[in-house]
From TrEMBL:
Signal peptide: none annotated. This is MBL fold metallo-hydrolase. Transmembrane segments: none annotated. Pfam families: Flavodoxin_1 (PF00258), ODP (PF19583). PROSITE patterns: FLAVODOXIN_LIKE. Keywords: Hydrolase. SMART domains: Lactamase_B. GO terms for molecular function: electron transfer activity; FMN binding; hydrolase activity; metal ion binding; oxidoreductase activity. The lineage of its organism: Bacteria, Bacteria division WOR-3. In the N-terminal section; belongs to the zinc metallo-hydrolase group 3 family. The keyword Ion transport does not apply. InterPro entries: Flavodoxin/NO_synth (IPR008254), Flavoprotein-like_sf (IPR029039), Metallo-B-lactamas (IPR001279), ODP_dom (IPR045761), RibonucZ/Hydroxyglut_hydro (IPR036866), Rubredoxin-O_OxRdtase (IPR016440).
């Protein structure tokens, strides 16, 4: 396993999981990388580690550059085990290495790995000399854990950004310009929508904290390294963190006998005729993480369910739980569905949405199979509700 040079005396030594297809409940159809970086200076510094099962290839890549026992510092930007999982193993080799982290990081590391750790605690804007260059640390709490921080290599102008700007994406090639830009931007958007979205206000705070830094390279903990498109991903994060809402509708539904699907298709026709971009996402064929990626920049979300035993369909309830946890802002909701005799499914969805948002502009339900007069009413009611 070879290291990869990202700048003079700076190397990627992480691990690649080509087979990963699920990460914390969202699909990772392109696998993932767990990035670690090695800086060769007077003090040899390792930035983060990798998930435990990738330790062997991680160690081989370090050995490709330097004797791992000579590592002086290990910076832990984030305690979560996809980043710190190999820390105990590397410490058995780099026995004199000092761990660099923030107060929340120290607390988390001791909770995970015990109190017998050699830790130097830093805070925002602390500077650590490693020889010819300096590391500057910036705490970025809740992007997306309390312990999160980023590390800036001052003279090289490299930001080791931890989870920020990352993507679950496996590739032989490490740089942005070596990969399809539309694909890595999409994967970065999916990562944001499914992990970072609830913390958009904290992202704004972090971006403001870093705004005066000159950044030539962004080296995140997952995915590719940004070098030629740094300004592009910074602009995307500025946009995504402001909860963007364009003239776009995402219609999400499940159906039992097809009646709720008839309603969903009629709403598609209505919004298309009104000039909206419409994304049609049946839950039977679309994963909730892909749906959230589309929801990120939408203005209206349609949620459709029939009633099953006085409840929404389980697939719709599961989607709703996932949606509410990610807490998208600036969205309007349309709730619709068919029923046989009770009709509680749409009511329950509406009530749950209203606990989180008062922007449910219409609940529409039809008994049994929609008839022509029902369809006309659907169109008239939604037009009236949106006006």
């Amino acid at each position: 396993m070879k290291s990869f040079k990202i700048d003079e005396n700076i190397f990627w030594v992480g691990g690649i999981d080509w087979s990963l297809r699920d990460f914390h409940g969202y699909t990772t159809e392109r696998g993932s990388t767990y990035n670690s970086y090695l800086i060769i200076d007077e003090k040899i510094t390792l930035i983060d580690t990798v998930k435990h099962y990738l330790f062997d290839e991680f160690l081989e890549r370090i050995k490709d550059v330097v004797d791992p026992s000579k590592i002086d510092y290990i910076v832990v930007n984030h305690v979560e085990m996809d980043h710190s999982g190999s820390l105990p193993k590397i410490l058995k080799i780099a026995k004199n290495a000092k761990i660099i982290t923030n107060p929340q990081g120290e607390k988390g590391l001791k909770a995970h790995y015990g109190d017998d750790l050699n830790i130097k605690v830093i805070k925002t804007k602390d500077r650590l000399s490693i020889g010819k260059d300096n590391l500057i640390f910036f705490q970025t709490p809740m992007v997306h854990w309390p312990d999160n921080m980023v590390t800036y290599l001052e003279n090289r102008k490299i930001l080791f950004s931890n989870d920020a700007f990352g993507q679950h994406y496996s590739s032989f090639y490490r740089f942005d310009f070596e990969n399809p830009l539309d694909e890595i931007i999409y994967q970065a958007k999916k990562y944001y929508a499914n992990i970072v979205l609830p913390y958009s206000q904290q992202v704004q705070t972090a971006l403001n904290l870093l705004k005066d830094l000159e950044i030539k390279i962004i080296a995140p903990s997952h995915g590719i390294v940004w070098k030629e498109n740094v300004s592009d991903i910074l602009k995307e994060y500025q946009n995504w963190s402001k909860d963007p809402s364009k003239k776009k509708v995402v219609i999400v539904y499940d159906t039992m006998w097809g009646s709720t699907e008839i309603m969903a298709k009629k709403y598609y026709e209505f919004f298309e005729n009104e000039g909206y971009e419409v994304v049609f996402m049946p839950l039977k064929t679309n994963h909730i993480s892909d749906i959230m990626t589309e929801i990120l920049d939408s203005s209206i979300i349609g949620i459709g369910t029939p009633t099953l035993n006085k409840q929404p369909l389980p697939s719709v309830s599961g989607f709703l739980t996932y949606l509410l946890g990610l807490n998208p802002k600036n969205k309007k909701f349309l709730v619709f569905g068919s029923y046989g005799w009770g009709g509680e499914g749409t009511k329950i969805i509406k009530e749950n949405l209203e606990k989180y948002s008062n922007r449910v502009f219409l609940e529409e339900k039809i008994q049994y199979i929609p008839k022509e007069e029902n369809i006309e009413n659907l169109k008239n009611n939604i037009k009236r509700s949106l006006s």
